[in-house]
């Protein structure tokens, strides 16, 4: 007996109904990106390992899927070298790997095509990425990222615009969200004023867990990282900061008055929040933000990477992790020998958005129905009579099919029901004699005898 086929753990098949929902997500995000002047690019599924290695830290390097060289991949490799550990062996027999994210390939793209690009360059990219991670709930080895970035501009108007994009996308989905915003410079200033500048990563990694583990555990983690009790004490009012965004900024300006970098962070965050708030208070409600906007000083996000404003988006009506994130980075292309190009970007988590839309049942009904109209096939003559009408329906933009075989009518009706096709058209001897069709509404059971023109009018 043949072995039952399967797919690798951490990957998924998507059937027609799931693809209709996923395409709704991708098409919505794509249309909003395009609305704001972002242009689409794509990069290959595989990159040279020299492009990928060393860009994600030691842990990231282990999670790269490496591709064996074509042909005799062991050619020229001494047997003694195969005992030297897997990383060294992989370097000898693999020159390429599957992309781990869209950011490093984008940095490579900018450097490689710099003479063709007009800066600032606004790009978006919706493609799958691969990670050799241990599969678990919500964590896959293959998943999609939906990124947008502006490179070659330091202007904070880019941050404002990206928050508008986030707001527009989730408004179209009907998902209520809170956009949490912080600034890397504020976090650096905090570490500086408590005399622990060298512990910035330990501090932010710990306070980033406040929601998950609570204040006492955060303080315990800070102490474990070697931060003195006095410094931890100074952190308490910052970690527990409350009030409106404006009150928080005012407090932080006072707390960070002796830190130049901290005050710069306050200035940047105030600009972004004030611009977005000004729109929400404008006379035109169409310009108002639908999302909540919250300055959250415990928000850290990959701090070795970001250098300015950082964002994270949480759904308000579903318990789930971040569904969008991003931030400002000052040296994206420096890793490829082209320093000084600043950028800011966001990434929508398509798989988590899919879960949120499912839980809240927010998909439009129309997207799950592929075919709108099925023509029943009673035989050769009836099929020949129906085909011009099928073509007329296609020209009218109606998703139409004719059942390919002259099967029993019950079987054809079961087919329509199974696929959720809302209308069925039939033509037997009497309809053919009159030049008409019987149109059945599968939801209501209502039937009427119609011309092709009337049929199109009723289905559209």
How do the helices and strands line up, and which of them pair or pack?
Blueprint: H1 16-35, E1 39-40, E2 46-48, H2 49-52, H3 57-62, E3 66-68, H4 86-93, E4 94-98, H5 103-112, E5 121-130, E6 142-151, H6 157-173, E7 177-183, H7 184-193, H8 200-207, H9 210-224, H10 229-239, H11 245-255, H12 260-280, E8 292-295, E9 309-315, E10 324-329, E11 343-348, H13 350-360, E12 373-375, H14 380-395, E13 400-402, H15 409-418, E14 423-426, H16 429-434, E15 437-441, E16 447-450, H17 452-459
Parallel strand pairs: 1-5, 7-8, 12-13, 12-14
Antiparallel strand pairs: 2-4, 3-4, 5-6, 6-11, 7-9, 9-10, 10-11, 14-15, 15-16
Helix pairs in contact: 1-6, 6-12, 7-12, 8-9, 11-12
Describe what this molecule looks like in 3D.
The protein is an alpha+beta fold. The chain has 3 domains: 16-42 and 99-360, 2-Layer Sandwich (BirA Bifunctional Protein, domain 2), CATH 3.30.930; 46-98, no CATH class; 369-459, Anticodon-binding domain (Rossmann fold, 3-Layer(aba) Sandwich), CATH 3.40.50.800. Helix content is 42%, strand content 18%. It has 17 helices and 16 strands. The protein has an 8-stranded mixed beta sheet. A 5-stranded mixed beta sheet has the order 13-12-14-15-16. It is globular and about 95 Å long.
């Amino acid at each position: 007996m043949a072995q039952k086929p399967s797919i690798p753990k951490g990957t998924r098949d998507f059937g027609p109904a799931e693809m209709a929902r996923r395409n709704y997500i991708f098409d919505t995000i794509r249309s909003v990106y395009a609305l704001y002047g972002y242009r689409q690019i794509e990069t290959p599924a595989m990159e040279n390992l020299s492009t990928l290695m060393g860009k994600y830290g030691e842990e990231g390097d282990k999670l790269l899927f490496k591709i064996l060289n074509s042909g005799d991949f062991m050619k020229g490799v001494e047997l003694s070298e195969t005992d030297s550990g897997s990383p060294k062996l992989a370097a000898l027999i693999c020159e390429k790997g599957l992309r781990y994210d869209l950011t490093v390939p984008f940095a490579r793209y900018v450097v490689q095509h710099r003479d063709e690009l007009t800066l600032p360059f606004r790009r978006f990219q919706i493609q799958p990425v691969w990670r050799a991670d241990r599969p678990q709930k919500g964590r896959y080895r293959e998943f999609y990222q939906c990124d947008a970035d502006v490179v070659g501009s330091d202007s904070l108007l880019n941050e404002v615009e990206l928050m508008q994009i986030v707001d527009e996308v989730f408004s179209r989905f009907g998902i209520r969200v809170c956009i949490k915003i912080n600034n890397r410079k504020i976090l650096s200033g905090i570490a500086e004023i408590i005399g622990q500048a060298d512990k910035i990563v330990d501090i932010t990694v710990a306070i980033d867990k406040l929601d998950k583990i609570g204040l006492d555990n955060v303080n315990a983690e800070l102490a474990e990282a070697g931060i003195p009790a006095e410094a931890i004490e100074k952190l308490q009012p910052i970690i527990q900061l409350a009030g409106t965004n404006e009150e928080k900024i005012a407090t932080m300006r006072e707390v960070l008055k002796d830190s130049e970098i901290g005050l710069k962070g306050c200035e940047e965050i105030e600009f972004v929040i004030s611009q977005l708030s000004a729109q929400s208070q404008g006379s035109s409600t169409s310009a108002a933000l639908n999302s909540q906007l919250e300055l959250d000083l415990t928000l850290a996000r990959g701090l070795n990477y970001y250098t300015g404003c950082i964002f994270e988006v949480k759904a308000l009506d579903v318990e789930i992790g971040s569904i969008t994130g991003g931030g400002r980075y000052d040296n994206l292309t420096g890793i490829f020998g082209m320093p000084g190009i600043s950028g800011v970007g966001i990434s929508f988590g398509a798989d988590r958005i899919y879960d949120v839309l499912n839980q809240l049942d927010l998909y439009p009904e129309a997207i799950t129905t592929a075919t709108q109209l099925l023509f029943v096939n009673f035989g050769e003559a009836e099929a020949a009579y129906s085909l011009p009408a099928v073509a007329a329906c296609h020209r009218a933009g109606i998703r139409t099919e004719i059942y390919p075989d002259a099967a029993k009518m019950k079987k054809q009706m079961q087919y329509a029901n199974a696929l959720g096709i809302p209308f069925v058209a039939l033509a037997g001897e009497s309809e053919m004699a009159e030049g008409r069709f019987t149109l059945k509404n599968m939801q209501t059971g209502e039937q009427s005898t119609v011309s092709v023109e009337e049929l199109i009018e009723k289905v559209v």
